Amino acid sequence: MEELVLRPGLVTRLLPAGVCLGVFPTVAIPDSVVYGLAGESAVGKAVLGVSVAMVLVCGVLVAWRAFRLATICRPDEVTLRGYLRTIRIPTTSIIAIDVIDADIRWLDSEGTPRRTKVSAFESSSQTSKATREHNKKTMEQIRSWWLATRRESPRRLEGGAEAVEA
Description:
Elements: E1 4-6, H1 10-34, H2 42-67, E2 70-73, E3 77-81, E4 86-90, E5 94-98, E6 103-107, E7 113-117, H3 129-149
Antiparallel strand pairs: 1-2, 2-3, 3-4, 5-6, 6-7
């Protein structure tokens, strides 16, 4: 089976970038000035310069990660590119995919149950109806892909319960 790359809508990816590069620096930098970090001394100006640089670097990094949000499904693993980190989950370790909560349940190498949010397709009460529908449809695609690619033998949880959800 081929690689399946799923991304949130463009607005969903660009909005956090705008917040990180526009709103956050506008709020954070004047606070530095108000609290006296930019006094007339060279040290104050240096502290302000470092503060501005840190805010901008963090903003650029989060904006870049937000733009690259994606879920990549390959026959051997599912890669979740989130805002701050990338997670790779072996396909054979996945035990369930929750469409509503946008998460993947899986077992790590020691058999410990894990639950990983698919932040690219997470919805909240403030999420627009169109985005919620897109996220649900995309999570259903991920779940259908997983059901089509999983192995014939179902995984078992502790106590012998079957972990495959159909």
